[in-house]
């Protein structure tokens, strides 16, 4: 089960609202490589994982992603607080505003609502961990692109923190994949599925 | 039921009591009776969790109390048939 802590993982203090930036950063909330997809990916995949260390890692990273989901929400909240109608119109934020006012709703920057098609849970640990490593790199690229678009240091600072976390998670998932492979016979990474086939990897 | 399961079941009952009081107090923040009950069950839960983690290991990563080995990831996990 889960317990909420009334704090952000890393501080978010943005002095100047900026609807145009909110429009792109929202992709890390409800977009294809966003924090919601990340959290649901790991928290769903962990049931197929036969190894304690990696069940723990998926649980712990899946939980951290929820804290990142909250940080992105805080960034969006602060970027869209006290906007004038004129700013909303000229920034292009009006297309979001018409459906959600300034409420926080998970969509991609393109406006597509969040969908579970953004992640997989394949019931095969080699497949899942390979997706997880790719997912962390895709999120890192998205943060790189956000940093190309954002010049406000108040925004860049928490975004850079989140970008670094993608790199650390990628590193840990790489180790998890190695742990999983070490537990299998080196000749049977793909010969059987340890989360489905009985006696797979138990030679 | 073995000791571990009994103790865990006790913690879950305290958890649920505290969750119910939490939700009730969210909308009744000045109810002294509710506040007193929350304090009472919070202490009971704290003692039960102390005993559980001492005997059977952590329920959260910050409860790991072992300088030899990281016991947080030990099997079984809660969704597994025991």
Automatic annotation (TrEMBL), chain A:
Keywords: Calcium, Capsid protein, Manganese, Metal-binding, Virion. Belongs to the manganese catalase family. GO terms for molecular function: metal ion binding. Binds 2 manganese ions per subunit. Binds 1 Ca(2+) ion per subunit. Its cofactor is Mn(2+); Ca(2+). It comes from Ruminococcus flavefaciens. This is Spore coat protein JC. SUPFAM superfamilies: Ferritin-like. InterPro entries: Ferritin-like, Ferritin-like_SF, Mn_catalase, Mn_catalase_dom.
């Amino acid at each position: 089960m889960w317990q909420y802590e009334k704090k952000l993982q890393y501080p978010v203090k943005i002095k100047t609202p900026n609807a145009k930036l909110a429009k792109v950063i929202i992709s890390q909330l409800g977009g294809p490589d966003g924090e919601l997809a990340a959290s649901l990916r790991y928290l769903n995949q962990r049931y197929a994982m036969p190894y304690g260390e990696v069940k723990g890692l998926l649980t712990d990273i899946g939980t951290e992603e929820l804290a990142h989901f909250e940080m992105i929400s805080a960034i969006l909240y602060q970027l869209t607080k006290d906007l004038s109608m004129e700013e909303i119109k000229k920034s292009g934020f009006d297309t979001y505003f018409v459906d959600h006012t300034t409420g926080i709703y998970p969509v991609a920057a393109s406006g597509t609502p969040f969908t579970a098609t953004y992640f997989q849970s394949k019931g095969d640990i080699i497949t899942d961990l390979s997706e997880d490593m790719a997912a962390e790199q895709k999120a890192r690229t998205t943060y790189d692109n956000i940093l190309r678009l954002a010049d406000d240091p108040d925004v860049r600072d928490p975004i850079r923190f989140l970008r670094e976390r993608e790199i650390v998670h990628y590193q840990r998932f790489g180790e998890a994949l190695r742990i999983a492979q070490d537990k299998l016979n080196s000749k049977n990474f793909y010969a059987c599925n340890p989360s489905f086939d009985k006696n797979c990897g138990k030679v | 039921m073995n000791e571990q399961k009994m103790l865990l079941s006790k913690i879950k009952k305290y958890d649920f009591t505290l969750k119910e009081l939490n939700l009730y107090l969210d909308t009744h923040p000045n109810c002294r009776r509710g506040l007193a009950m929350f304090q009472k069950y919070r202490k009971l839960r704290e003692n039960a969790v102390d005993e559980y983690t001492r005997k059977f290991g952590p329920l959260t990563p910050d409860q790991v109390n072992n300088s030899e080995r990281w016991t947080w990831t030990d099997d079984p996990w809660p969704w597994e048939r025991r």
